[in-house]
Amino acid sequence: MATQLASAPALPVSIEDVRAAQIRIGDAIVRTPTLISQTLSKLTGATVYLKFENLQFTAAYKERGALNTLLQLSDAARAKGVIAASAGNHAQGLAYHGNRLGVPVTIVMPRNTPVVKVVQTQGHGATVILEGDTFDAAYAHARVLEAERGFTFVHPFDDPRIIAGQGTVALEMLEEHPEIDLLVVPIGGGGLISGMATVARAADRPIEVVGVEAELYPSMYNRINGTDMPCAGDTLAEGIAVKEPGGITAQMVAQLVDDIVLVSERYLEEALSLLLQIEKTVVEGAGAAGLAALLAHPERFRGRTIGVVLCGGNIDTRLLANVLLRDLARSGRLARLRLRLQDQPGALYNVMRVFDRERVNIIEIYHQRVFTTLPAKGLITDIECEARDRAHLDGLMVGLREAGFEVSTVELA
């Protein structure tokens, strides 16, 4: 990786392309802040700078590449309009800037796309067509419409204009904080990291570039390392859940990127929760991937001055609530305890006395008498409760056992 050989083929995007994109899009894109996080720096052992791309108008960096592409279309192409296949941030970025520039935008989405994403994209002025049950089916239909109606297809990542636009993220970070010596960048199709690595390699000092993928979707990792790990499953980081990286981006990653690390769902959840609690900022799963890498691989990043891209903030509120509650459970502040009781008067009352003594709040109680392997006079009781922290919860469990109750925790995955 990061091949620096004279025989390596010339890359389709140069630092001049990225600088030209910065000038081209500069007055219509939010120059989002890059701020140091003292708390996350202390937590990870690195100096951590966060790039808040979740503060773009459509809450994601994808606007940059979309706008850079739209501004380079001919008048004839603008008049006919553009088309894309996307159920995510690319759709909204293209729709928003297309509407602003008077360019008709058509987006093809799978039929199972959440209604909120359809409505948001339509709200930016795009025509949305629902076709197929998978992204591949939607993509194929978009290419058919491109040929039939003379649209210009705008790829979400495998296009030099898109890559150059995304690279402006790194230009801004390094202009504001030239002390950064390592960039940690989420990888889906590879457009963002290709553009940012182009900027890093053009710097007058060594800047390492490390990509991050979800363990469930290691597509670029497979391509670069020759592995064959499966790409499937429900990941929190749906914005980088790409089964096949781009051909252009794979070439650029192979030559420019130093390393790719994988992160599990647990670290993605923890990172998202920490960003909300510590930085008071909402990110989607993909937006949390950079911090998740620092949490999952602390020895890889300790002592470095790191730029982390919070690449997007579009997350379903119900999913966000679920992630936060799961994080509370892992920290011991929420728990479900399972107790074995005798089905007789006073049994539950005696349990409650222990909770009262330990000052642990009870949220819900569930009795199970029928669907259990216990004798007929036995029952299982699940109690959801709220403690101050893990030590407080452990004290409650000790108290319950000392009172003669058989108790265990219902653990999260």
What are the salient characteristics of this protein?
globular; 44% helix; 4-stranded parallel beta sheet; 17 helices; alpha/beta; Alpha-Beta Plaits; 413 residues; 3 domains; 14 strands; 6-stranded mixed beta sheet; Rossmann fold
Set out the fold topology.
Blueprint: H1 15-25, E1 34-36, H2 38-44, E2 47-52, H3 62-70, H4 75-80, E3 82-85, H5 89-101, E4 105-109, H6 115-123, E5 127-130, H7 135-149, E6 152-153, H8 160-176, E7 182-186, H9 191-201, E8 208-214, H10 219-225, H11 247-256, E9 259-263, H12 265-279, H13 289-296, H14 298-301, E10 305-310, H15 317-330, E11 334-342, H16 347-358, E12 361-368, E13 378-386, H17 390-402, E14 406-409
Parallel strand pairs: 2-10, 3-4, 3-6, 4-5, 7-8, 7-10, 8-9
Antiparallel strand pairs: 1-2, 11-13, 11-14, 12-13
Helix pairs in contact: 1-8, 3-5, 3-8, 8-9, 9-11, 12-13, 12-15, 16-17
Provide an overview of this structure.
- The structure is a single chain.
- Strands 1-2-10-7-8-9 form a six-stranded mixed sheet, with helices on both faces. A four-stranded parallel sheet has the order 5-4-3-6, sandwiched between helices. Strands 12-13-11-14 form a four-stranded antiparallel sheet.
- It is globular and about 80 Å long.
- The mean pLDDT is 93.
- α8 (160-176) crosses α9 (191-201) and α16 runs antiparallel to α17 (390-402).
- α5 (89-101) links the parallel β3 and β4 (105-109).
- The protein is α/β, with parallel strands linked by helices and 413 residues long.
- It contains 17 helices and 14 strands.
- It has three domains: 15-61 and 163-326, 3-Layer(aba) Sandwich (Rossmann fold); 82-150, Rossmann fold (3-Layer(aba) Sandwich); 332-409, ACT domain (Alpha-Beta Plaits), CATH 3.30.70.260.
- The chain has helices at residues 15-25, 38-44, 62-70, 75-80, 89-101, 115-123, 135-149, 160-176, 191-201, 219-225, 247-256, 265-279, 289-296, 298-301, 317-330, 347-358, 390-402; strands at residues 34-36, 47-52, 82-85, 105-109, 127-130, 152-153, 182-186, 208-214, 259-263, 305-310, 334-342, 361-368, 378-386, 406-409.
- Helices cover 44% and strands 19% of the residues.
